[in-house]
User: Fold these one by one.
Assistant:
Number 1:
Amino acid sequence: MILKLDGDDFSCGRSAFFDKDPSQPDADAKVFVKVRFGELPTQLALLDTGSTWSVIGTEIADAAGFGKGGVPSKMSTRFGPIEGHLEKGLVTLVADEGESLEVEGTFFVTSAMPNRLFIGYGQLLQSLRFALDSPNNQFYFGR
């Protein structure tokens, strides 16, 4: 089912989200959504509505074809400050129903978290409509 708002489509796609990433053991439930970069396999990304940027580790960034350029920057994390660079890139929110959605965002590329992937509010999610149906683990998204 695609959500509607005042008779218009609110979302173009829906996918199940996961409370945990099997590759990242953590006791706390979080929201992991399915994303894809270009022709790479689908991956899980932590949805982080409190983040200024999306974060992509260098191993994933290299495989996704992100360049080595970008604006050098620092980011404050719960583990302390980390260094990286800001780079624009495309990511696809993968749909189980409806249409997947390719979105441009600003990514903080860092070697401090080589295999981690976060989809942040600032510079990516803020340009979309999105909703969570938490009891049913569903993520809705659209323009």
Number 2:
Amino acid sequence: MLKRIFIAIGILAAVCLGGFITYIIAYGTGEAAGYETGQDVGYSSGKQDGYDLGKEEGYNAGYTSGKADGYDEGMQAVLSQGYTLRDPTYNEAVAFLKEDKTNENEYIEDTYGVYVCSHFSRDVCNNAEEKGWRCAYVELRFPDTGHAIVAFNTTDRGLSYFEAITDELVRPVVGERYYKCIVPKVGYYLPPSYDDTIKDILVIW
């Protein structure tokens, strides 16, 4: 009887030992496999997350820097090569005309006009733009002819017209004789030999 008990205990111990050894082997194998799998997954995931984060941060930094550099270069190009025009006040327009010397040019009329009202108005407009003022070339159409003057869209008095030849203020009205629309600096104007009734006012910016 005692012999059987020892045999049973021996078998039980062998079974337990075998199970323990199997557990150790399986645990070790599973741990190694899990480590390798986890390492691969973690590396891939971490690599992708790092790439995405670095890409986003790099894009944002590059976009901000590039946008700032491009804006600066564009503004520099505009300021160095273009015009920045604005509408003057009435007093600024009058002061510019006093300073401008176009009215001192000689009026020369020929078959096609060598230097007439259109030339005076053109030069005043060009000189105003060089000073930074927005100036309009204005065509006044009469029944058989026409006349050219200039205008400024003043910020305090609105559209103000001026004679480019004399720098005098003009208040043109369709249907009125032009000579009556001029505000003379001295004296008054007599009616011309031709019909200067204003039929149309064409403002060209």
